[in-house]
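Exercise (ungraded).
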Amino acid sequence: MRVLFLSDIHGNLEALEACLAAAPAHDVVVNLGDTVGYGANPNEVIARARELGNTFVRGNHDRACAGLTDVRGFNYIAAAAAIWTNRQLTPDNLEWLKNLPHGPVSLPELPNVQMVHGSPRDEDEYLLLPDDAAASAALARAPITFFGHTHMQGCFRITEKQQITVHPKYSDQGADHWALALENGGVYLINPGSVGQPRDGDWRAAFAIYDSEAKKVTYYRVPYDVETAQKKILEANLPERLASRLQFGR
Ligand code: ZN
């Protein structure tokens, strides 16, 4: 089975459409959360995401934009975007957002794989450092976990001997795709990267394809119409930083 993994779209319609246009053939789409928040097209992005499939994990911004979490835990910019998004959402999309499932989520066809937003142990945990990845991997219910939340494309592998390998982000290579062959043993924590607001120094939209038969993950980066996405953010009177950061991938 070939799975298209999308994460952290964050209301960026231009980035989402670019990823879908570039994605190779796949059997199913999985969304790792934060479909909305930050970007200027929450309703359009939810509509598109719902057309693609029905395997979702909720993210912290999904929760906040749905009104399930108090935005006081967010920084000013994230809080302002969450309040703006909440007011834009149609009643149907708001209801859909409220009912997204808490991870881990899994698919019956993929018993070795689980999907989370933050980490196997906490939907709000940021897996940025190898030590955090190792601690979290110990609680993984499957040998392969796909996660999002950090907006950093890449992978941690924790072997049975607790050796941690951090696979370089695809952006380090400068090309438009990069494949990772999965070996047997240990735990993999794999981040497809952020579609709509990359923060790993590469402004291009990110996604990944997992091929369960070939035991391979292929990471992709795609250029998109960042100027239009920025213009819409400014026209919506969202914080200026949400527009400027897109061109730097930070
Ligand atoms: Zn996010």
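Further reading is listed at the end of the chapter. For now, observe: Residues 8, 10, 34, 59, 61, 149, 151 surround zinc ion (CB under 6 Å). The CA atoms of residues 158 and 164 lie 5 Å apart.
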